[in-house]
Amino acid sequence: MSASGRPGDEAVDRPRQGTAPLLSARGLRLAFGGVKAADGIDLDVMPGEFLAIIGPNGAGKTTFINMTTGYLRPQAGSISYDGQPILGLSPRAIVARGIGRSFQLPQLFTEHTVLENAALAIAARAGLWSPLAPLLRPAWRTEAMAVLDRFGLAPLAGQRADALNEGARKLADIAMAVALQPRLLLMDEPTSGVAAAEKMGVVETLVRVLREAKVTAVFVEHDMEVVERFADRVAVWSQGRIAALGPPATVLKDPAVLRDVIGIEPPTGPPAGLPARESGHA
Ligand SMILES: Nc1ncnc2c1ncn2[C@@H]1O[C@H](COP(=O)(O)OP(=O)(O)OP(=O)(O)O)[C@@H](O)[C@H]1O
């Protein structure tokens, strides 16, 4: 355990001053009719960090992930990854560059086993996108088993994906994304639908695996306890904009964040004196 107290922190390259961002978004704009889902998003994600995105429903959190992973094209702005522009690339081309994603609803092949699902991701990494691909090469199954083992899913390898509980389903979905060997992983609500008693265990597992693999992570999260414990920084989305950005210990005390995102009235008293935006990263 490191000084920050977060599990698995030992293996990560901490964000350092002067380090180039891994992902850099500038001036992203996208409107659906009159709805501004992105209204000038500027964000840098530093190598090694875990960045949480919070915000009310409809604030544009998923839209940001969709733009970054090639599922939506912004009407204006730019996104670069590892110093290279990625706007206009297909989702598969972006995966091939090293950006993985997981969805709010796990995208597993439900009639296939957990092992076959993981092997399918490994086959996809080799360029073969087919649900039958895992059957082709024993080496893929062996590697898939090793990936599942890292997530504690090896005992469930032979189960059909539709037999899993929600926590295991989420982990299996993220295991597939990790099997593609990303350097950056964007996760849309990795804990949504997971029972309260399971939730911290699921997050601890995925954080441990991602830290060990030195994967930088951006995750949309509604549970502030998860954000506080596991995020290095938190970005607050509001009406297509980033309203606040900084360490959870600071941002989650912001009276506006407490009221508008977390839904509790801030305590009255002297102002917390929070900066609206952290300098440097965004
Ligand atoms: N493909 C689309 N077509 C039309 N409108 C869309 C599309 N995608 C998103 N929107 C709209 O853009 C706004 C932002 O949506 P988005 O899903 O990004 O919000 P969110 O912050 O992820 O919300 P939630 O927390 O509910 O998932 C919403 O008003 C949504 O209805």
UniProtKB/TrEMBL annotation:
The keyword ATP-binding applies. Residues 23-264 form the ABC transporter domain. GO terms for molecular function: ATP binding. SMART domains: AAA. InterPro entries: AAA+_ATPase, ABC_AA/LPS_Transport, ABC_transporter-like_ATP-bd, P-loop_NTPase. PROSITE patterns: ABC_TRANSPORTER_2. Keywords: ATP-binding, Nucleotide-binding, Transport. Pfam families: ABC_tran (PF00005). Gene3D superfamilies: P-loop containing nucleotide triphosphate hydrolases. SUPFAM superfamilies: P-loop containing nucleoside triphosphate hydrolases. This is ABC transporter ATP-binding protein.
